Amino acid sequence: MLARSLNLSTRILSRPISSVLAGNFNLTEDQLAFQETALQFAKEHMEPFANEWDKTDHFPIDVIKMAGNLGFGAIYCSDKHGGTGLGKLEASIILEALSTGCISTASYISIHNMCNGLLDVFGTEEQRSKWQPGVSSFDLFTSYCLTEPNSGSDAGAMSTTAKLEGNDYVLNGSKMFISGGGESHLYFVMTRTGPKEISCFIVEKDTPGLSFGKKEDKLGWRTQPTRLVNFDNCKIPKGNLLGEIGQGMKIAMRGLEGGRLTISSCALGGAWYALEKASNYMGERKQFGKHLKDFQYLRFKMAEALARLTSARMTTRACAQLMDQPIQNKHIFASIAKLIATDDCAQIVDDCLQMFGGYGLLREYGMERMYRELRVLKIVEGTNEIMRHTIAKNLFDHHPHHHHH
Q1: Catalytic residue among 90, 148, 257, 381
Q2: Following DSSP, what letter does each residue of 18-69 receive, concatenated?
């Protein structure tokens, strides 16, 4: 849908992004068109308003729906149910571009795509025809519910339960830090259905017993509401079980590995924005009779930032392509991309903010907003400590050690 509707208009209107900042190598004409469309959208509909949204905690539902009209709510889904049938690389390119406008809003769009992708892969024909058209167009907003007040990184300690009673499952417990909580129409909830068994249910917003905590007051990601989600004897029809009983952890991890990749992509977009703003500013601002860009120390700082951005982007995009291959342990690549991109891009934004001196601290320049957003990205969708843990586990615990006698 996206590819077809974009073809002509973008190719006629688009100016090629030749900038070394975009780091585009090996992208197809379609991929460049998606990128251009997303960049244009970010520039027109997100960036001019992002500081205001951030300041007033505004959830820009109308703008998110406009993104839905471009197919950005159904990146992974097959055409049959109103999706675009693209892969992880296209998702990465699109979310990076949207993040140059507003990381927080792009991150919510990324979480929504994660849920829609899970519905696409694990949903029955019936579930898909019931919900997917609305999810794909952003008529229905979605939330992913894994984290609990007492189990963040340790998903095994989950205490939300679902017990079968007649034709319904009765859900009890609560989920913490839920993006879209209180606003979303559908909640994808990981819950315990047995001592060692986790299953995933889709809970609809008007379910009796479903309630929400206060809107959390956060450092970043302020344009998306985050709330505690409570389940008090919520009756969930059997037909709302996603996948099979006991498949919940598989579903959760399938979602998270894609999510880690798109969060990496959001980090790239923030760094790209910061680097572009800083290099422009350095060409205008004069101190001691010369432009900032002519001080070697500052030039080198920015050169290093561009090298890091390019390297993080190449890593993320290569990992994105691997994620769509049928290979073992591919979640490791998502963890590597998440660690590299969020750590390095946070450093880039920090260095770029420094170039503005005192102006970098002012809200209207947008740098402090990106600085706060990048700080968020090192924690969400699996902390960077868990990324290191996952990578180390693969290094030390999965290979038979060869003993030399």
Answers
A1: 381
A2: --GGG---S--HHHHHHHHHHHHHIIIIIHHHHHHHHHHT---HHHHHHHHH
